[in-house]
Structure to design on (255 residues):
């Protein structure tokens, strides 16, 4: 859909959409518990929100949507919940990939993907490959991901390059570190949203969110809809990002 065909919520400026939005999709379990249902129902409802928000973000012209779907720490959940989540992830990607492709959505997988069950991995690669030539929204799915895992991996890659004489330790700067992260080459998130009411980062993109705007929504992920997403964007649009400078400097840069 074109942005001018969208029924845009009042107050949202279509010319000032953040290029990169990252989301900690939290609250599925509580959504289910409130309805006296099994947590797994909350997770499958959560998939509907993923579809809804992906479509909306793509229509709005967001370049990168980075979704925290399963953390390194989530492996510590009860085995049956982990199984449910893995099956859901594997099924969803295959089911949704054709429509994602129609919407020109490009898929990237971030995290320790080798840790996922083989069958899930296969589905993920198949879904990703189907959308390989798409150049619209980049949908970055974080699976078995944590920021400390990512930074530890980056240090290991750098240490190997030093050992093998490809890199001089004196040449290690921020760009060298950035280039070894799973998000290498992708601009940092402009906006980080966490749904579900908790105000914490839970090991997500610690390096990349150094200057992101943070937005915490009380809405549980399965209830997170276009209106809730637009509310976050409107808040974002009303903030002044100063990057350590003064307000006057920022205003003169905008002229
Ligand atoms: C987020 O919802 C989904 C994952 C972490 C995989 P939760 O399952 O954490 O839901 P709550 O926080 O228990 O409500
Ligand atoms: C964060 O949610 C991870 C994901 C949304 C994938 P959690 O529910 O795992 O976070 P904590 O444990 O409440 O910090
Ligand atoms: Mg949670």
């Amino acid at each position: 859909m074109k942005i001018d065909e969208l029924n845009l919520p009042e107050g949202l400026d279509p010319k000032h959409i953040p290029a990169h939005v990252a989301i900690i999709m939290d609250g599925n379990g509580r959504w289910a518990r409130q309805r006296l249902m099994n947590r797994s129902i909350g997770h499958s409802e959560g998939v509907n929100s993923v579809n809804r928000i992906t479509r909306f973000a793509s229509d709005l012209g967001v370049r990168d949507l980075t979704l925290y779907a399963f953390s390194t720490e989530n492996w510590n959940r009860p085995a049956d919940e982990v199984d449910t989540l893995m099956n859901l992830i594997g099924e969803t990607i295959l089911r949704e990939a054709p429509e994602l492709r129609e919407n020109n959505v490009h898929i990237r997988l971030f995290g320790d993907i080798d840790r996922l069950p083989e069958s899930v991995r296969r589905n993920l690669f198949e879904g990703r490959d189907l959308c390989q030539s798409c150049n619209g929204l980049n949908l970055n799915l974080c699976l078995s991901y944590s920021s400390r895992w990512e930074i530890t991996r980056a240090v290991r890659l750098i240490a190997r390059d030093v050992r093998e004489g490809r890199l001089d330790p004196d040449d290690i700067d921020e760009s060298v570190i950035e280039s070894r992260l799973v998000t290498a080459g992708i601009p940092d998130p402009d906006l980080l949203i966490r749904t579900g009411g908790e105000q914490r980062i839970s090991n997500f993109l610690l390096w990349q969110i150094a200057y992101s705007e943070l937005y915490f929504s009380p809405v549980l992920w399965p209830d997170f809809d276009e209106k809730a997403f637009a509310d976050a964007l409107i808040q974002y649009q009303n903030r002044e990002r100063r990057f350590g400078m003064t307000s006057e400097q920022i205003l003169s840069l905008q002229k």
Q: What stands out?
A: The longest strand covers residues 64-71.
